[in-house]
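sry for the spam today, last one i promise. struct tokens for design, 216 residues
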């Protein structure tokens, strides 16, 4: 266009080039404006992605911590009553139902370990027990002394209500207080009930309840 040789044509062509240049500039500016809008909209999204990434890292750390605690609790459970939750009729459920290292769960753990041993009147272990001999030795394992007699144990320990029962609490039976068992959680006690019947888990309502007590 610059070599046509006609001034008029040359002027027209320059004007046309100017129009093309202005249009191109508008197009370029439109692209730049669009790019700025995109960047403005992208910035909060990038911030959100960063926050989500940080939160995911925090959740992963918390999950790891929770998994570690679960592993610890599972080890405590296995230490308390082994990998097998029950051994038939004598132990129909995990015994004790929970174990946290407290005095009550230590006493219950000891009682649970005696399941299957025989009842012998007046015996306090290690191969046989009567009812108060079992509870006496169970709480001795937790560092608490009790007399070898159900009624005397009732007079020695503070009372608790059934709604406040904890693992390790004593459950006293019959109006004359001639029997006692140890609560192991989940509605179960462990007791040495009578000759010919081994130490076992059974429901807390297996006999008429007199009251409840908590040593320690």
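last one done:
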């Amino acid at each position: 266009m610059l070599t046509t040789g006609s001034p008029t044509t040359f002027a027209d062509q320059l004007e046309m080039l100017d129009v093309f240049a202005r249009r191109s500039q508008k197009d370029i500016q439109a692209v730049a404006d669009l790019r700025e809008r995109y960047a403005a909209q992208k910035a909060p999204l990038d911030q959100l992605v960063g926050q989500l990434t940080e939160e995911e890292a925090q959740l992963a750390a918390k999950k790891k911590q929770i998994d570690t605690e679960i592993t610890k609790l599972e080890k405590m459970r296995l230490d308390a009553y082994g990998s097998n939750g029950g051994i038939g009729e004598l132990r129909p459920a995990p015994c004790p139902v929970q174990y946290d290292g407290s005095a009550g769960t230590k006493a219950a753990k000891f009682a649970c370990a005696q399941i299957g041993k025989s009842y012998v009147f007046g015996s306090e272990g290690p191969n046989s027990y009567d009812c108060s001999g079992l509870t006496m030795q169970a709480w001795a394992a937790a560092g608490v002394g009790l007399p070898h007699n159900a009624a005397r144990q009732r007079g020695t320990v503070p009372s608790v209500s059934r709604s406040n029962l904890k693992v390790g609490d004593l459950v006293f039976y019959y109006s004359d207080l001639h029997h006692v068992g140890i609560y192991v959680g989940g509605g179960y006690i462990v007791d040495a009930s009578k000759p010919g019947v081994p130490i076992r888990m059974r429901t807390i309502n297996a006999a008429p309840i007199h009251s409840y007590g908590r040593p320690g």
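The longest strand covers residues 179-185. ok im logging off now
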